[in-house]
Sequence to fold (564 residues):
Amino acid sequence: MEFATFADRAAAIDAEPADLEIVAHVRDLLENANDDLEIVARFVQGRVFPAWRSRTLDIGPTTCYEAIARAAGTNVSATDVEDRLAEIGEIGEVAAGYDFGGQQGLGAFTEGGASDPLTVREVFETLSDLAAADGSGSHDTKVDLLFGLFNRCESAEARYLARLVLSEMRIGVGEGAVRDAISEAFDVPGERVERALQVSNDYGQVARVARDDGLEGLDAMDLEVGRPVQAMLAQAGTVTDALEEWDEAAVEWKYDGARIQLHYDPENGADVATTRVFSRNMEDVTDALPEVVEFAEATLTEPTILDGEVVAVDDDGAPLPFQEVLKRFRRKHDVAKAREDIEVRPVFFDCLHADGDDLLEEPLTTRHDRLEALLADDQTQDPETVDGLSLCWRTDDPERIESIDAEALEARHEGIMLKDPESTYSPGRRGKHWRKRKPDVETLDCLITGAEWGEGRRATFLGTFELSVRDGDTLETVGKVATGITDEKLDDLTDLLEPYIVAEDGQDVDLEPEIVLEVGYEEIQTSPTYSSGYALRFPRFQGVRHDKDPADADSLERLERLRA
Fold:
């Protein structure tokens, strides 16, 4: 498929306000994708690689601006591109405004000549090469590769290439639209497409299987050890609500740690055990967490996928705050030294796969029994002595639940989780079957969209951070936070945020919405000051959510639900 064809269809989708018509456009796009079906099914969502792959383009805005500037001509600089962006506000429109195609240099021509139409596959293969660039000189290589693509683009192509490169496609195509489009395009039931997506987490693969192998092929798709799936999520809830809806509740401690998914294969076809650890966002964090690998290899004996958390502990084994986990969670260098400073331990509360059996459709109680059997030394072992096992109590007694909550807090954990004992495991879903109950101040995970340079001794630090929540494809402000942040933390935050500065006006700074903050607050009030219509009263900085992507930030809908 020519990339111009994809861009034209993306433009039609972008201009379409009706959900059903969007699905119809995506359906037509998939039906005509031919050998490029897997690529197109990802591109239309703004993805280059499958969601479960840790592979990323690793391109900052500046790299993209440099490539656009080079393709636009010798009189255009990256600063010019950035200035246009500040004026227009959208990188696709900026790219579309330049006249590309006349520049020469590495990557400017293909073997067939510069006049050859750019194809979807060429874009994918070039971006794959770009993602593989590493080490000394990789920045220049990435700019060269991007320049070669932009130099072959017409206006519409440049618009969607720029958006794709910077993960800002934003044409209104969500996961549900692609799921429904696959169902319509290849005449397979939507619920079977949904199941295949849950176990594979790869819209491209599911689209191809649906087209080539139909319903039989979709039903044959299973979980695969080594390929992560999205984590099932919880929403805030009360004991009263849970017991009103369920006959009884499964109660677990809520750990102040970072979510992990453990994949273990004792042989992996080569008589060598393979262990992979993935974060909540399916990032491979195996190398940063050798304790989890050692636990798996010392404990497990069959192919397994487990869901759990990793918790930082002190010398006595007592849990440390979440911020201590983050010092280990994404560590890429000096892991051994970091391990000496901060020890982590895994604790697991769910089993998704064991010895060839997918367990997503099994009730929670069955999955937990399987988990206990996997981790216990023998069937008679007291569950309280099983290493790495999160205990699960079943009760319909509110007083018993309160006592479990008190025990969790006494053990320095966050509180408790309430779960429906009969619930299946729904990857990526945040539903009423899992509920988190925390006794402390409620928190929101907000995107930082702006900041202010400080004054006096804090003049070199960014502070007073503007907070926003998601409302569909837009962001709405809900307040500013400046309290609860030490000078040391402000220094760290400034280093973290400076690469995402897009504009400055005096002390005021506009930021790309890439960093998620956890913010506590006392109350949500109506307010004309912020675009959401609400303001957080007494917001207080809790920490950076390094384990969350921008798409995982809280929504305006959740904010309104918390206020209700």
